[in-house]
Amino acid sequence: MWLDDEAGPLVRPYALTKGRVRSAGGSLDLIALVSAVGDPPSALGPEQHAILRAARTPISVADVAVELDLPIGVVRVLIGDLRDQGLLTVTAPNASGPRPTERILKEVINGLRAL
Fold this sequence. Notes:
By secondary structure, this protein is of the alpha+beta class. The chain has helices spanning 13-16, 46-54, 61-68, 72-84, 102-114; strands spanning 3-4, 8-9, 33-36, 59-60, 88-91. Helix content is 41%, strand content 12%. The protein is elongated.
């Protein structure tokens, strides 16, 4: 058993995803919102249960990764699996909304440089 004196048992990220780097359903945007649907089966792992608990209210994919303290790639695969099982809904960000102009983006960059 792999142990870290401070962290306890360690599980490598690839073990959580069974070596996969993406789920069957395609990639997920970092700002896509996920929401839990229905009751989870008991056969899920602790990470999947943690995702479903976090998604009781809509939460972004990036925020799930922060809450679980897992790499975003692992979280994307786990969320994709839960979506494929019908336990999560994923709402993609609205791509047709107003986009910032080049002038606004330059002002943001200049403001960040000024910090």
